[in-house]
Amino acid sequence: MSSTRARATTQVEAGATTDANARADAGAANDAAAKAAVPAVPAPDGDEVTSRGLVVVGPGASFGVELLRRFGEEGFALGVVTRSAETLGRIRGELAAQELTVSGLVADVTDAAGLTRAIERVATEIGGLTALVYNAKISIRGAALTVAPATLTETLAVNVTGALAAIQAGVGPLTQRPGATIVLTSTSPRTAPVAGRFTLAVGKSGLTALAEALRPVLAARGVRLRTVLLDGRIAPDGPLRPRDVAEHFWQAYAAPRGDIFRLAPVRRDTPVAQLPLEV
Question: What are the residues facing 56 on neighbouring strands?
């Protein structure tokens, strides 16, 4: 864990919270509990399904490589859908040093048909889909009373509608897979957005609402929908470090229960509760 601490909060029941410092102690127990809670299921030929695959849509530059590396350490086959061949090449190059291979395709998240084909193909290439992470976003600067309405429409197409398209594409491959989980990257709702980030704030709030509406529908199909809230700048020197963010995503996946997992820098003037990840 980095020297800069971060507070992680898990919404399990009303008032349930946790500190990032407890994650190291709770991680092993959570991983074991998660695996015990999701037994392997028979494949059509009678063999058990033991392989696990992760597809990240929009891996980004801030922590995408670390996220893939963290799941790769757990034995996941790795796949990405990204908007540029350059990003795909960079990710493959950085992970090659750890002997981790990445399947990937280039697709635009605002093209629902193209995104669906990409997710389905990558899922097939990695041997099946167990976890789908939607991390794509766009942030176009503009204040609330001056930003063009068309700009908000453009950002919603990526931050909200693209997420819906990805979920609809992934639910088929995920259904009946042990531990099937969709994770959305968001931020906490803000009534006073950071200056110039009005459209991003609206988009992320919309994404959170989308998750709430879809969660019970997906649960009926045996797919967990979890939201990771990242409330801080992600950079090698903090306040949120890429490796810590990647670990937080892993805990969000591995936790036996919970819907919303928040990671934020600790305020030095605020006491930090020392609670386990699950209460």
Answer: 80, 133
